[in-house]
TrEMBL record:
Residues the record lists as binding substrate: 13-20, 26-27, 65, 92-95, 103, 119-120, 188-189
Function recorded in the entry: Catalyzes the interconversion of 2-phosphoglycerate and 3-phosphoglycerate.
Domain of life: Bacteria
Record gene name: gpmA
The UniProt record lists the keyword Isomerase: yes
Family of the protein in this entry: Belongs to the phosphoglycerate mutase family. BPG-dependent PGAM subfamily.
Alphabetically ordered keywords of this record: Gluconeogenesis, Glycolysis, Isomerase
Residues at the active site: 14, 92
EC number: 5.4.2.11
NCBIfam families: pgm_1, PRK14115.1, PRK14120.1
Catalytic reactions on record: (2R)-2-phosphoglycerate = (2R)-3-phosphoglycerate
Signal peptide (from-to): none
The name this protein goes by in its record: 2,3-bisphosphoglycerate-dependent phosphoglycerate mutase
Native species: Micromonospora pattaloongensis
Pathway annotation from the record: Carbohydrate degradation; glycolysis; pyruvate from D-glyceraldehyde 3-phosphate: step 3/5
Amino acid sequence: MCHMTVGTLVLLRHGESEWNAKNLFTGWVDVDLTAKGEAEARRGGELLREHGLLPDVVHTSVLRRAIRTSELALHAADRHWIAVRRSWRLNERHYGALQGKNKKQTLETYGEEQFMLWRRSYDTPPPPIDDNDEWSQVGDPRYATLPPELMPRTECLKDVVARMLPYWYDEIVPDLLAGRTVLVAAHGNSLRALVKHLDGVSDEAIAKLNIPTGIPLRYDLDAELRPVTAGGTYLDPAAAAEAAAAVANQGR
Ligand SMILES: O=C(O)[C@@H](CO)OP(=O)(O)O
């Protein structure tokens, strides 16, 4: 008899970034972590170590807040030496013309309904960013090999699901099927896209789901890659609930 071993998936949103702290829409803008964000990343790594949840491989976006979070967390867990893979497909949702804009001012200017449509609706993207905008990523060398028609100027969550899933199936799933413990260090909305897929969250319900910074979320998957526990398990559930509520309230 052949038993397929399925590994464990651990999702980690980067720690607080400079633009999280300033309450600015960030998207693909490559901002760094704050000192608080660095401490959150280290704490995330300590949680991994305390729970004996030691990654064999890490997948990150190509943005420094996720890369640095993974490095700080893995250092704290004594797993700094594991294999690393990165992809733009794990990047934060491209926030279009909202990149660099203040969330509170945007809420005041456009009103609650439009603000939440842009932030959390499944299929309404913000207006596209102009290629000459100071926060455009056109010309950024890290995307030089990206086919031009794949380079986003804005994205809704549905677009993120569509561009993230090829990476999930082609790069992450094989690691899981090989029985590995897989850490995915990414972003609020790219992880919402992955959670939506894993848990089969409806287009409506995903609007209410927020991912806190720096707290590992564990998913044990069955042989069909379905979560054994719906929604996964945060390694620090109380801190996760409080931090997710704070994300939901941004802009207010
Ligand atoms: O600004 C962003 O890129 C994201 C994540 O910080 O914000 P929001 O939670 O509003 O989608």
